[in-house]
Write a structure and sequence with these properties.
Elements lengths: L1 E5 L5 H10 L3 E5 L2 H5 L3 E4 L4 H10 L3 H9 L4 E4 L1 H6 E5 L11 E6 L10 E7 L5 E6 L4 E5 L4 E6 L2 E7 L2 E4 L10 H13 L6
Parallel strand pairs: 1-2, 1-3, 3-4, 4-12, 5-6
Antiparallel strand pairs: 6-9, 7-8, 7-10, 10-11, 11-12
């Protein structure tokens, strides 16, 4: 199974390294042909407005939307979660959503870069906490009935899933702990459609 990491902006290299450390094939995705050659994809953090523009200018947005609609396993972190959401606040943000998760994401809800923080969170079905890194992170303000909450912070969802789609408001790639990526690899392996390459 081939994993891709969207490589238009953000910490895509760190995601690739974590996936490779887990022993899976990981490649950078920058074009529609790159996307067509992977069986699962990670959408990293970055700036969601800029990512929307880059996805559009690279010709990737529509093929990505179609692939996700067809069941491509996808994991979004921070801005990646915003792109996967069905609704984004504040209204008027120039973000084009994929609508893969029935959630409302509030951009930069924890403040600016200077307000970034690290906080242990409890993962469902895991006795050990995970030290989550939040950088200009969104908040999930609403969760639809089809979305499963896998972790919370102060009562707010920070890791969610619907079918083959998983998303985090934080940056698991910036820690040495691979457990979130392991979850995605297991999810992708169990839900991926037949190979697309």
């Amino acid at each position: 199974m081939k994993f891709g990491v969207l490589a238009l902006q953000g910490a895509f290299g760190a995601h690739c390294s974590t996936l490779r450390e887990l022993g899976v094939s990981a490649r950078l995705v920058r074009t529609p042909s790159d996307l067509a050659s992977v069986d699962a994809i990670v959408l990293p953090g970055g700036e969601s407005t800029t990512m929307t523009k880059l996805l559009t200018s690279s010709g990737l947005f529509d093929p990505l939307a179609a692939a996700v609609d067809d069941g491509l396993p996808v994991f979004g972190t921070c801005a990646g979660l915003i792109l996967l959401s069905s609704t984004v606040e504040p209204e008027g943000a120039d973000v084009r959503c994929l609508g893969a998760l029935d959630v409302t994401a509030v951009r930069n809800a924890y403040g600016r870069q200077i307000d970034s923080f690290e906080q242990p969170i409890t993962l469902r079905d895991d006795d050990e906490t995970f030290d989550a890194v939040f950088i200009r992170a969104p908040v999930i303000a609403r969760v639809g009935p089809s979305v499963e909450v896998l972790a919370t912070l102060d009562g707010r969802p920070v890791l969610v899933r619907r079918g083959p789609v998983m998303a985090a408001t934080f940056h698991p790639e910036l820690t040495a702990d691979p457990r979130i990526h392991e979850r995605f690899v297991r999810l992708a392996t169990s839900t991926a459609p037949a190979s697309r390459s």
